[in-house]
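Progress note, sequence design subtask.
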């Protein structure tokens, strides 16, 4: 795993946009695995700017999102389909048909998981973008006693519900279940870009980088993938820098302008 230290969220977002741009320049019809939430929001803004001001072309890109809240239709303002459309697809000129998101409002969610699993297996991502939740989740794969391989319905951890309450206005309004791709889909991506920012992620970042590989911290499995770039900002690295400064000095690629 390549570990890139960003000084702050702005730099992290710019570095992430650089990596996505490089991917699209190398392979214009790249299949991008996407996530939503706070971690990639600045990256999407920067990609939109580059599309508008620097003609970065997304016309051949295909987007496959990792997850969706159960019970929300794609036009619900808190749905991940809506987030993607507003912040990435529409402003970058990617038509809705070139983006796949699980249907959170499907009548039969188990069947929807099977449909999405078959789709993802047929079309693995060239670049999977990921954030990491406060529980160490990737996609919505929460801590468990095993790494779930396939798309599935998941009960969200209380910490995840609390972290997402700000978007819904209150904890009670946050759905308690979601559909997510499994760890298998994530690990089949050719390349992975993980973004982690903020002091509230410092403890889980320490466990992710320095703890053992365990389904209790799902993101740790990424350390077994052959092509991962983790861009992590100084705030998120706070605990690692305090406890393992030498390890960080040796492992980290600190970019200087
Ligand atoms: P966040 O969520 O980017 O909003 O912190 C991360 C995640 O849940 O994967």
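Output:
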């Amino acid at each position: 795993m390549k570990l890139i230290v960003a000084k702050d969220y702005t730099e992290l977002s710019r570095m992430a946009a650089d990596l996505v741009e490089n991917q699209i320049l190398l392979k214009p019809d790249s299949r991008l695995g996407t996530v939503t939430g706070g971690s990639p929001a600045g990256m999407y803004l920067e990609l939109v700017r580059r599309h508008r001001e620097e003609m970065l072309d997304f016309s051949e890109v295909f987007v496959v999102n990792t997850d969706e809240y159960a019970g929300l239709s794609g036009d619900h303002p808190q749905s991940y389909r809506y987030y993607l459309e507003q912040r990435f697809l529409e402003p970058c000129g990617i038509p809705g048909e070139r983006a796949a998101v699980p249907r959170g409002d499907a009548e039969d969610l188990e069947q929807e998981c099977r449909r999405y699993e078959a789709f993802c297996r047929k079309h693995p991502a060239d670049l999977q973008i990921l954030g990491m939740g406060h529980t160490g989740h990737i996609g919505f794969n929460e801590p468990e006693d095993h790494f779930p391989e396939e798309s599935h319905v998941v009960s969200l951890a209380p910490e995840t519900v609390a972290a997402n309450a700000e978007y819904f206005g209150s904890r009670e309004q946050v759905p308690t279940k979601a559909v997510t791709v499994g760890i298998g889909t994530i690990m089949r991506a050719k390349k992975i870009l993980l973004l982690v920012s903020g002091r509230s992620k410092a403890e889980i970042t320490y466990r992710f980088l320095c703890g053992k590989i365990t389904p209790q911290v799902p993101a740790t499995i990424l350390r077994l993938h052959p092509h991962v770039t983790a861009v992590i900002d100084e705030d998120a690295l706070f605990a690692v820098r305090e406890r393992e400064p030498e390890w960080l000095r040796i492992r980290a690629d600190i970019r200087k302008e």
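The pocket of 2-phosphoglycolic acid is lined by residues 35, 37-39, 131-133, 137 (CB under 6 Å). Work on this subtask will continue into the next period as scheduled.
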